[in-house]
Amino acid sequence: TMCSNKIQASLLVVSYSTYLLLGAIVFRALEKNAEKEQKMAVIQMKEAFLQNFTRLTAADVEQFVKNLTEAVQRGVYPVGNESQTELSNWDFSNSFFFVGTVVSTIGYGTLCPKTAAGQIFCVLFASFGIPLNIVFLHQVGKMLSLLCERLGRWLYAKGMKKKKIKFLTLLFFLVMGILVFLCLPSFVFQVAEGWSYSEGVYFAFITLSTIGFGDYVVGKQPDRNYPPYYRSLVAIWIIFGLAWIALLFNL
Amino acid sequence: TMCSNKIQASLLVVSYSTYLLLGAIVFRALEKNAEKEQKMAVIQMKEAFLQNFTRLTAADVEQFVKNLTEAVQRGVYPVGNESQTELSNWDFSNSFFFVGTVVSTIGYGTLCPKTAAGQIFCVLFASFGIPLNIVFLHQVGKMLSLLCERLGRWLYAKGMKKKKIKFLTLLFFLVMGILVFLCLPSFVFQVAEGWSYSEGVYFAFITLSTIGFGDYVVGKQPDRNYPPYYRSLVAIWIIFGLAWIALLFNL
Ligand SMILES: [K+]
Ligand SMILES: [K+]
């Protein structure tokens, strides 16, 4: 059964990864062109404004501000010139990140499907993806609780009473979790993103609680150099952090 | 015990409402002034631009676009003149709505705490608010499942077999839920918000799954007249819809 458990766990990891991968590919295919068209429209509007702005009235400027505001609210970043439209929000890496925020229900909303096809696919994708993610996190949580069991067995061998062991492993699980999943990552975000420590704690908590406001998102500042593997480390932090919180709620 | 159950349920409703109410008041107190300052800064920037825009260079316009984009991304709506700064995003109604998106972990992110005090309070508030919300939704779910039990007893009195009853009530619960919590509200959103039907389904699903991107939010279009009690109806829909989904996952 030890071996069949391992096979079951591997199958789960493979199907979970495949599901996310395929989702990312479909979303990119559905959204990339629509996004490009929206970007082009904003850039044309800006260019028309730039060519004529010495002859415009205050009302024209107000209309320009309004159009610009709506573009930003729709997720278009109107700073810079035409060449920047080549950098799509819906490249594979961003699409995969988006799919992760869907199945975990974090839903930052920094990237959203705008086409009807993308939105309908999102509903179908999440309908199966969210339960699959719960099963996957449950499997990860099992690994985390094995660590606690080992600690318990070690204390039992030292001759400690069972009731005391249960309390100590629970305390260990809670305190270590807060240190490893909140305090330490907040410090990493402080360094890598240039946030204050309290902003780091706020971001870490808002992410792992799956509230996911999207006001702070890691790796999104265009003028910063991020350490290598930063994004992968963040993904691992989110997976184990969510599994840890799911375990806490099941205790 | 019937009576003590009712007392327990009433106590839960009262403490849940009080918790949200106090939270809304604290957030408003913490955030209102900081928001006003940010709005004033954007308006001053716009006024300076408007006074000088016939003498500005293209680089000045680009900088203006950049500043404006950042303001919108921070949640400031820069359209209109100074008088609109009096309309705070952090009035009581909006603050209460915000608190609801925190404890439910929907987290649209259309309104977020910007001050360090507001962010730290948000972490503390959610730490107790999310578990309290789960307990509250569990209580609402009990009410919903009582409806199914009644249907089951009625079918049992008609002489139906227990296994068939269980299957039928489950089917009834699923189909009725999809109709009442997804199909019908999507139609209401189509009429009240001017969205397409598929946009309504997308919004309803993204909300009840607690993904909460924040790309579509009800009652937020300044140029639309919403029916009376629209917001209250939406709140009731969210509460019962979340309770319904929580029950589905526990089946
Ligand atoms: K969210
Ligand atoms: K969320």
Provide key terms for this protein:
homodimer; about 250 residues; mainly alpha; Helix Hairpins; elongated
Topology overview:
The structure is a homodimer of 251-residue chains.
Chain A: H1 2-52, H2 58-73, H3 92-103, H4 116-157, H5 162-193, H6 197-208, H7 230-250
Helix pairs in contact in A: 1-2, 1-3, 1-4, 4-5, 4-7, 5-6, 5-7
The structure holds potassium ion (2 copies).
Oligomerization state: homodimer
Number of strands of chain A: 0
State the secondary-structure class of chain A.
mainly alpha
Shape of chain A: elongated
Which pair of chains forms the biggest interface, and how many residues does each contribute? A-B, 53 and 53 residues
Q: Report, as a whole number of angstroms, the end-to-end distance of chain A.
A: 25 Å
> What is the residue-averaged pLDDT of chain A?
86
Q: How many separate domains of chain A?
A: 1
Give the biggest beta sheet of chain A. Answer: none
Protein name (chains A, B): Potassium channel subfamily K member 16-like
Organism (chains A, B): Pelodiscus sinensis (Chinese softshell turtle)
Pfam family, one (chains A, B): Ion_trans_2
InterPro entries (chains A, B): 2pore_dom_K_chnl (IPR003280), 2pore_dom_K_chnl_TASK (IPR003092), K_chnl_dom (IPR013099)
